[in-house]
C-alpha cells in the first residue's frame, strides 16, 4: 500500500535531530514521527517563534523526510499520574516547576493544550502520547480495591483530559493514546472504558502499538477489530515472551533486556508480533496513515536495527485486493 | 503421605469460627490455618489473656481440628506498603490508629512481633503472611525507574522486617511470606532477591501458593526446586489463564470473577495448576507440613467448593517410594 | 446448581419408552427429553387423544422421571431441506405422504405447528429441533455461489418458519434450534444470521450442543456469550478431533466411528469439550434449565455410557458463588 | 532443482492472455499453466483449427514462457456434479446448451475427451482439472446417509470418467485431479477411494495443491507420501486457518476474504503451508515437473502477490543431495 | 469390556509370591502376570516337577487370582545381547554359568525353549519377554554404522530366535516381545523390521506397552493400528516427558526417578499416556486379553500405586458399541 | 557483530582442500575450520615438517580464508571409546595400528597431544573434537546399570584426558568438546558432569553445536547460560524433529535422511533451531569467536546449501546494544 515508513524519534533524543535525521534518511525512511523532547520538536518554541515550524519542516526536507504526527508521551504522562521523583527527569523544567504534584499535573495539562496548538501550526493532524493514570498502582486488587476507586480514576482521566481534548478539537488535531502499561488504558477492555469515559469523542483515539499488547496476551488484531475508527497512528514495535518456568510476565523488578525477564522488547520481526495479520486488519479498516517504527531492543545495536527494520516494514506492507477471484471463472467477465 | 489437609480461614472470616469449624469438620478437614482476623485468632487477646490460646485449642478440638500455622496477611501488608485508604478496612483499629502512614507502618511492625509471640504461646511454628512493598507501584518501568529505587525498596523491606524476624527467632517461629503480587516478592526472581535482602536468615521463608505464580507464567515446581529449604507452608489454591485474544493478563481493572479478565482464581482442580508435579516436588524436598486450601473461586458456591476440594487434596497427595525398582530384577535380592 | 440431568431419547427410539425409561431411572437420571418419534412422544396422538399427554406423564412418573422439553429434529429437518430419499426413512408416513418435495415441506411445517400445540398440552415450554436448510449444499463456494443464493436461503428459512413460530408464540412454547451441520445455522455466525432472519423474535432460540461446534473449531463458550438470552435448552454431548495428518475434518465420506475420520462423537467426558467452562458460562447467564445428555459414541457400549455420563454430569454441575471474597478481609464485615 | 515456476492462469482469465503473459514474464515466471477458459486455451479451436496450437505456442514464446500443462477445472466439474444454475456461469455455451442436467453432464464429458485431444496436439502431457461429484451434498451424514449412497457416487464417477480416461490413454495424456472440496476426492482417504474406483489406472492421478488440504487438517506431506507415483502436477497455493473461538472451519456461508471465516486462501508464504517439507517430499518421490502458482488471496493486490510469489517459489526450491555425509569421515574416500 | 485386570509381578520379585498375591487380591486384581524370576514362576521346576504347575495354580486360586501369561524378560534379554557384568545379576546361576558370553547366549536360548514348554504345562498361551539386541549400542550412527551392521543384527536375532519360536509353535504358545529400548525392536519401525526378520511367523508378536513408546514420541495408538493381529498381551504402564529446556530425552546417564531426567515412568494415569484412545484401538482390533499393570514409579509408594492403579484400569476399560446410532432415527426400526 | 563466518571442513574431506577452499571463498565465507583428516590439516606432517603450517596458511590466504580453530573429532573419539571395526575407517593407519583396542586408545591419546602441539604451531587457540565414551552403550539402564558403572566411565574419561589436557595447557590451546551422542557429554547435565570430572580445568570447554541438543529436547540457549565461560567455539548446524506418531526420536536404526526417522539434520535455517536466541545469548556472554557452519543435510545439494547458509549466518548475526533506552527520555541526557 506504500504507506510511509517513519521512525519515531523518542528513543533517539540523545542525538541532535540533524544527526538522527541524516542517519534515518540513509537507512531509507520516508519520515520521522518527532518526539516533543530533546531538540526534535519543542512545543514552547513552536508556539512562541513564528518560523519555528517552517524551519523544522525545512530541516526535515533537507533529508527528504516527512512528518505526519508528533508525539508527546512524556508530558502527557504527567497529566493523570501521581507525581513522584521519576517525573522530574522526563519533564521540561517549566512543566516540572517546583515539583508540587498538583501544580505539575496542571502545567502538564496546559502543555498538552499547547501541543495541540503547535501541531496545528506545524501541520500535523495527530499528536501521539500518554495520559498517565491515577489508578495504575491499584492494578492488582490487594489490599482490596473498591470499584469506586477505579471509577474515580476513569472520571479523573475524563475531567483532566476533556478540557485538553476541547483544544484538540478546536485545532482540528486528534490525540492518539498509545495504549500502554501505566496509562489509563493498557489493554483492550481498559481502552474501551477510557473511550467511554470521554463519551467516545472523536478527538480521542489510539496510537496502535502491538508490542504492549502482545506480552499481556492480548491479540493486537482484536484491538484493531474492536476500534476500527479509532486507529489514528500505528507504531511498529515488537516484543517477545520469554517465559521458561523461572521468568515471570511481571518482570521481577528486573531491567529491560535481562534474559531473566518474562518478556522484552525486540526489533521488529525479532519478536512474537504477527505483523502479517496486522497489515491485513489495517487494510480491512482502511488505515492509510504512517507505519512508524518505535525502535527498542536492549540486545541489538540500534543503528543495525534501524536500518534492518526500515526494510522489514517495507517488505511486510502490501495493498489489499481489488478483484473478486471468482470473477475470473465467470465466462461473462472473461 | 497423609499430610494433614487444612482450610485457611482467611476468606471465611465473615463467619464466626464455630460456624466455620463445624462446616469444615463435616467436610472432612483435618484442621484449620487460622487467620488473625475476625474472631478466628486474635493476636492481642492471645498475648493479653492467659487462657486464650488454650481455649482456642479447645474450641478447635471440639471439632477434631488441628491448627499448625496461623496467618497474618493483613497486618503484614501494612509493614512495607505505602499506606492509603484501602488499608483502613483491613487493619484492626489499634493498628490503623489515626491512619498516619508512618505510624501505621510502625504499629503494623509491632503487631507482627506480637504475632510471633502469640504463635509461640499458641504452639505453632509458622506464621504465614504478607510483607507489603514500597515499590510495587514501580512494577512497570515507566516513567523510567532507576535501579536504585528498586534497591531502596528491598533495603526498606530488610530494615523493617529484620527487627520483626529477630523476634520470630527468639520465639522459635518462622515467617512464611506468601509470594504474591503487591508483596516484596511476587515471583521467583523477586523471591530470590528478598531472601538475599535479609541475608538468607532462617526465620524467613515462603508460604508456597502456586496460584499466584501460575498466571504470571512461573512454573510453581521451579519455585520449589529453587527454594527447597524455605518452603515453610503450602497453600493449595488454583487459578486459570483465560486469555482469548481480548482479555489481558493484567486484568483490565476488572473485578475478580469476570470472564473478561485474562485470569481468575479457581477451586483446586478447576484451574491450570499441575498439583501432581507439585506433590512430587514436595516429596522430593521432604516437605511434611500441611496442605492448606486457600479457597477462592468467584464462580462457585463456596460450601460446594470447600467440600469438594478437601476430597481433591486427599486424593492427590501420596507418599514417595522407598524401593529401587531394579532391585526386583536382581536375583540376589529376590 | 442441581440442574436436572436428562437423557434425550432420540438415539434410543429403537427401544420402547418403558424399557428405555426403566433403564434411565436405574442409571439415576432425573428425566427424559422425549423425542417425537418411536413411541416416545407421538404428536398426532397427543393432539388427537384427550388423555395422551396425561398418560404419558403417568408413564414417566412411574419411573420418577420428569420431562421439560420435547424434541422434533426429524420433522423439523424437512421444513427447509431439499427433499430426497433420505427423508423418507426419518419422517412419519403421514408427513412423507407421496414424497413430492413441496408437499413434504408443507406437511412438515404443519407438523411443527402441531408439535407446538402438543407441547403446550403436554406442559413443556420448549421444543428442540432442526430447521433443515435449502443452502447447505452450497457450503463450499464452488462452483461460485453468488451472495444472493445465500440470502435467498435465509429468506426461505424465515418464510417457512415465521408461520410456525407464530403458532409457537400462541402456545407459549419456544423453538430451540440445535445448531448443527445441515441446518440453517451450524456455527456462531450462521446462528447470528438465522436469528436476524426471523427478526430476533423471542420464540426462536437455541438448543446449545457443544459437540457440533467443537470440531468446527468454534469455542462453545463463545456461543453462550454471544446469545446469552437465547439458550433455551442444553445438550451435553461430546466430540473429539482426531486429526493426525491423514484424517480430514470433513470426514472423507467415512461413517461415524471409524478412526480414519478427523473427528467423532464421544460419550461426555471422553472428548474435547471443556464442560467446566460451559457450566461457568451457563451460571453467568443464569441458565436454570435441564442438562440433557444426547448420548452418541460409536466406540462405547451405550448402556455403560448412559450410566457413566449421568454421574459425569452430576459431578460437573455446580452453583455459582453468592459471596464477594474480599468481604472476608474487611473488618466491618467480620 | 530448478523446477520451472509457472503461473496458473485460471484466476486471471478476465485478462487477455497477452496482457497476462507480459506481466508474468516481467515478474520472472518460466511459464504458464493455461486455463481452458477465457482466451487462454480454447479447446474447441485447438481441435478445429490446424494452427491454433502452434500459434498459441508462438504467443507464449514471444514472452519466453513455457506451458507444460493445461487446466480444465470448470468443464470437469460438470461431469459428475448435480447441475444447477451455478454451472451456467462457468461453462462455455456449447457445453451448457439448454441446461438440462443430463445433457450438460454428457456434453461436459465429451468436452473433457476433446480436451485430452487438444492437449496432445498442443504437446502437453497433463491436463489438470476437477471431476465434480454427485455426492458432495451428502458430506455430513444427516439425514442419515446409507453407505450405498456413497458407493453409488464413486461408481458414477468411475462410470463417467473411465470413457474419458480411455481417450486420455489414447492421447498419451494424464488427467490430474485437483483434490478439492466439491470433487469426488477432497482429502487423503477420498483420494484413495477415487483411485480405487478407477482401478488405479495410470491415466488418473493428482494435481497436488496443499491449500485445500491444510484447512481440513490433512498434512500435505502425508498426501505426497500416500501417492508418490500419482503426483502429476503441483500447485503452489497457500491457506491459513484463522480459528479464534468465534469463526468456524466450515466458513459460516461467508465469502472468501472475510475475517469472520475460519480459514482463507493466502499468497504463498503468507499462510500455514509448510513448503519446505513439501519440497523435500517432492524431492524424495522424484517429482521433476513444474511448480505452478495458483494465486488467490482476497486480502492482497494480485500484481504485488504474483511478483512476490514467483520469487518465493524460486527461493524455496532446491535440489536433493547426492552425497552420503559419512563418506567424508572415511579415510578411504578422502 | 471387563477385560481381566492383572498385576505383572516383575517389579515385586523381592516379595514372596504369597505375600504379593495377598496384597494384590486385597487391592482388587483379577490375576497376576507371573514373572519367571524370584519364586513367582520357576521354569526349571515347572518342567522338572510333575505337580509344580498345579500347585502354582492352587497357590493363586487361594487368592482368587488368575494367570493368563507368564513373563521371561530377563532370560530373553540374554539371547541376543552382548553379555557383560550386568547380565550376571539378572540371570539364574544355571543360565549365567561361567559367564562366557557365547555360552550365556546359548543357555539363555535353551531356557527360553524351556519357558515355552513350562507355559504349555502351566496352561498359558503367551510368554512375554525381551529378546536382547546385538546392535543396540549402534543406536546413534557415530562412528558411522554401515547398513550391513544393522542388517546383521536383525539376522542374528532371526537366527537365534527362530529355533526358540519353533518350540513355541510346537507348544501352542506365543512369544510377545515387549518393544523396549535395548531390544531388537524398540519403536514402530524397528518392530516392523523385527517381524519381517522372522518372516512374520505367527508365534512372534508383541506385548504392547505404551510407556516405552511415549517418551520416544511414538503414538502408542499408531503401534496398535500397525500390528492389529500381533498384540498378544497388553501392559498398562505410564510415563511422562519432563523436558524443560535443561533436561534431555536421553536421560543424561541419570537414574530413573530424578527430576533432572527428560522423562520418567509413572503410575498409570499420572503420566502422558492417553489410555482412552488405547482402549478404543484395542476394542477396534478385538483384543480381549488381559490389561496387565506393570507398575513402576520412582516417586510413589508402590502399595498406594498398586491399589490406585487397579481401580484406574477398571474405570478406563469399556466395551465397544453394538448399535448403529442412526438406526434410532429410522422409523422402520422403531 | 561481524563475527567471522567459517565452514567446518569435516564433511568435505572427500574434496581436496584447494577445491573446497575455492568453492567456499566464492560462496563468501571468511574462513575454514580445518578438519584433521583428508588433506585438510595433517597433524603428523604439521609436527614433522617445519613449513607445513606456514604453507597451509598460504594455501588458505590464496583464497582469502582465515582459520581460527582446527578439529580432531575422529581421533578424539578413539580415546575413550570401546574400539570396534567402525573405528578403523575413521582413524589414520598409524593410530589404528593393529587395531588392538588398548593400543588404539593409547595411540589416539598420543595423537591428541600431538594435535595440541600442531595447533600451537599453526597458531590456533582451539581444537574442537570428540572424546569418545566407554559408557555410551549403557545409555538406557537395562539390564540395570549400577551407578558405579557410570562413575567409572567419567573417571576413565578424566584419567585418559587429563594427561592430554596437560599438553593443551602447555601449548596454550583449549580443547572444545562438541557435546554429542556417543561422547562422554551429550546433553546439559552430562556436560556438567564431564566438566566436574576434570575439575573444571580451563583447558576443557565446549564446541557449542545446537543441532545435537535440539532433538534431545534440550534448549540450546540453556546450555549457553549454563556454561557462559566455556563456549570456546560455535558450530552452526540445524536439525528438525519430525515426530508424526509413527517415527521415533531414537531413529529406529534407520539411516540419516530417511523421512521415517524422528529427526534429521538440516541446513541452517531449515530446521528447528532458534538461532535468534542463540545469537542473543552469545552476545550476552561476550562470545566473539567464529560462527562455524557444520553443514549436513541429507535432503539438499551441498553446494546450494553451503552458499545459502553462508548468507543465512551473516544475516542472523548482529551486535548487542550499547545504549540504555530510557536515557533518551531523560532530559539531562538530551
UniProtKB/TrEMBL annotation, chains A, B, C, D, E, F:
InterPro entries: IolE/XylAMocC-like, Xyl_isomerase-like_sf, Xyl_isomerase-like_TIM-brl
Documented EC number(s): 4.2.1.44
EC main group: lyase
Keywords (A to Z) from UniProt: Lyase
Keyword Lyase tagged: yes
Keyword Mitochondrion carried by entry: no
Gene Ontology MF terms in the entry: myo-inosose-2 dehydratase activity
Domain spans labelled Xylose isomerase-like TIM barrel: 22-315
One Pfam match: AP_endonuc_2
Origin: domain of life: Bacteria
Protein name as catalogued: Inosose dehydratase
Taxonomic source organism: Blastopirellula retiformator
